[in-house]
Automatic annotation (TrEMBL), chain A:
<dbReference type="GO" id="GO:0005886">
    <property type="term" value="C:plasma membrane"/>
</dbReference>
<dbReference type="Pfam" id="PF00528">
    <property type="entry name" value="BPD_transp_1"/>
</dbReference>
<feature type="transmembrane region" description="Helical">
    <location>
        <begin position="164"/>
        <end position="181"/>
    </location>
</feature>
<dbReference type="InterPro" id="IPR035906">
    <property type="entry name" value="MetI-like_sf"/>
</dbReference>
<keyword id="KW-1003">Cell membrane</keyword>
<dbReference type="InterPro" id="IPR000515">
    <property type="entry name" value="MetI-like"/>
</dbReference>
<feature type="transmembrane region" description="Helical">
    <location>
        <begin position="102"/>
        <end position="118"/>
    </location>
</feature>
<comment type="similarity">
    <text>Belongs to the binding-protein-dependent transport system permease family.</text>
</comment>
<keyword id="KW-0812">Transmembrane</keyword>
UniProtKB/TrEMBL annotation, chain B:
<protein>
    <submittedName>
        <fullName>Aliphatic sulfonates transport ATP-binding subunit</fullName>
    </submittedName>
</protein>
<dbReference type="Pfam" id="PF00005">
    <property type="entry name" value="ABC_tran"/>
</dbReference>
<dbReference type="InterPro" id="IPR017871">
    <property type="entry name" value="ABC_transporter-like_CS"/>
</dbReference>
<keyword id="KW-0547">Nucleotide-binding</keyword>
<dbReference type="GO" id="GO:0005524">
    <property type="term" value="F:ATP binding"/>
</dbReference>
<dbReference type="InterPro" id="IPR003593">
    <property type="entry name" value="AAA+_ATPase"/>
</dbReference>
<dbReference type="GO" id="GO:0016887">
    <property type="term" value="F:ATP hydrolysis activity"/>
</dbReference>
<dbReference type="InterPro" id="IPR027417">
    <property type="entry name" value="P-loop_NTPase"/>
</dbReference>
<dbReference type="InterPro" id="IPR050093">
    <property type="entry name" value="ABC_SmlMolc_Importer"/>
</dbReference>
């Protein structure tokens, strides 16, 4: 009973907001031309759901998020590992990576549109670029901050090369890497929102922009809520992964 | 029983020197360790005793001089296992996984029997994070011994433990030493611990061996025994520099070299 209460507490504030929002809308204190009521938005969701459009757009956006994250995160992870493990690679690449990192990836949208038009590549490119840096940085930092005394111990007990990496270095870096993953997932959705509203003909952002043209305020707000929901969902997944892989760490135990 | 078993030399240091930059940590050190010896190295902190141990483990190489294990020069000493002061257990591996580190698959029985021997069988599946300091050092001891090392190096392994746990650990180490018949080198700053466990105690001062004291007492040692008390006080005086020690004991290096 207490446990159920505890898992309910974080949802109390959003629920209270929702209820008062609905009440104020019903009372006419909030004009539906400024902000539609939750019930109207819910109705819009059902309507769009029945026509299949809603799931089409959610599917498209999720697919972009997934692949963009996988490509950018994968490259960031690989380079982070490489530069973390090898001084030579770090000297060679790190300065360049840090230079590129200081350009906001969304500032590249004009040039990305010129390169790729409004095709899938544009969105994948931007998401990949956005997720690359947090995962690169955290992987690199995680590897570098593995306790040197544990590495020494591993060597005394006959670990070297791959086995040293598998048993000592990677698990030691994992908590930092997972922080990078969570951060990168947040960036994934921010990037998608911007990219899809500016240059797309499908996806949630496109759905919002399209609705704006026809003054369908309920669909616009629905899109915003969808982003919030999907962002929260992916963060929750990352949190589950943390709990699963870092269960030895008392900081991550429930 | 207290003395070394036979006179077979396991480890030999000849003219060992170690410098870090302009800092000379060890200056011309000679030492022979026989099979079955339990050597304790004591000295003030910073005297070079841990460096010496790390060198024997193959973790550091000497600036000059020779280090021989069974007559062969030491390079990454696989016959020796070191047990560190802080245990250095991997927090993401369970107790039994930690003990089995670096072992081949199918060593389960070996791991289990050692865990049982150090009294931690029922903690085999636990994370190191939930163990007490003494239990962690038992795991570290089991992990060192599961490799059946010829030479066990103990780098102040009990420094962080409370007095009672330390005495329990002394008993355990002593029993295992007799049982498994390995050679042991213990670095410690606790003179009583050195005298309780070792058959030879070496005092290092300013990078040299300042005193080499044999302890001829049967195990398990009585701390009230006059020889025990005398040995402790003699070593303490040497370390603290409060008494001139007569040079009639064992091989003893004076400040030449």
């Amino acid at each position: 009973m207490k446990k159920r209460m505890n898992s309910f507490i974080p949802w109390m504030v959003p629920l209270l907001l929702l209820v008062s929002w609905q009440i104020f809308s019903s009372l006419g204190w909030i004009s539906s031309r400024i902000l539609p009521s939750p019930i109207d938005i819910f109705k819009a969701a059902i309507e769009l759901g029945q026509s299949g459009q809603l799931f089409h757009h959610i599917g498209v956006s999720t697919k972009r998020a997934f692949w963009g994250f996988l490509i950018g995160g994968g490259i960031g992870f690989a380079l982070g590992l490489w530069n973390g493990l090898s001084k030579v690679a770090e000297t060679l690449f790190d300065t360049s990576i840090q230079m590129i990192r200081n350009i906001p990836h969304l500032a590249l949208i004009p040039i990305v549109i010129l390169w790729f038009g409004i095709g899938e590549e544009a969105k994948l490119f931007l998401v990949a670029l956005g997720t690359f840096f947090p995962i690169y940085l955290n992987t690199f930092h995680g590897i570098r901050s593995v306790d040197a005394s544990l590495i020494e111990m591993g060597k005394v007990y006959g670990l070297k090369g791959i086995s040293l990496f598998r048993h000592v270095i990677f698990p030691g870096a994992l908590s930092s890497i997972l922080v990078g993953v969570r951060y990168a997932l947040g960036i994934t959705w921010v990037t998608l929102i911007v990219a899809e509203t500016i240059a797309a003909n499908s996806g949630i952002g496109y759905m919002a922009m399209n609705a704006r043209e026809f003054m369908q305020l309920d669909v616009v707000v629905l899109s915003i809520i969808l982003y919030a929901f999907l962002g929260k969902l992916s963060d929750y997944t990352a949190k589950l992964a943390e709990r699963r892989f870092l269960k030895w760490n008392t900081n991550y135990q429930r | 029983m207290a003395a070394s078993k036979g006179n077979e030399t396991v480890l030999e240091l000849s003219g060992i020197q170690k410098s870090f930059g302009s800092l000379h940590v060890l200056k011309n050190m000679d030492l022979k360790v026989n099979k079955g010896d339990f050597i304790a190295i004591v000295g003030k902190s910073g005297c070079g005793k841990s460096t010496l141990l790390r060198m024997i483990a193959g973790l550091e190489s000497p600036t000059a001089g020779g280090l021989y294990m069974n007559g062969k020069p030491v390079k990454g000493n696989s016959l020796a296992k070191i047990m560190f002061q802080d245990g250095r257990l991997l927090p993401w591996k369970t107790v039994e996984q930690n003990v089995g580190l670096g072992l081949k698959k199918g060593s389960h029985d070996k791991i289990a029997s050692l865990l049982k021997r150090v009294g931690l069988m029922e903690r085999a599946k636990d994370w190191p994070g939930v163990l007490s300091g003494g239990q962690r050092q038992r795991v570290a001891l089991a992990r060192a011994l599961v490799h059946e090392p010829e030479l066990l190096l103990l780098d102040e392994p009990l420094g962080a433990l409370d007095a009672l746990t330390r005495i329990e650990m002394h008993q355990l180490i002593e029993e295992l030493w007799k049982e498994k018949q390995f050679t042991a080198i213990l670095v410690t700053h606790d003179v009583e611990e050195a005298v309780a466990l070792a058959n030879r105690v070496i005092v290092i001062e300013e990078g040299r061996i300042a005193l080499h004291q044999s302890i001829n007492l049967p195990y398990p040692r009585q701390r009230e025994h006059p020889i025990f008390i005398k040995s402790v006080s003699r070593i303490l005086h040497q370390i603290l520099g409060t008494e001139k020690v007569s040079p009639n004991q064992e091989p003893r290096k004076l400040l030449e070299g």
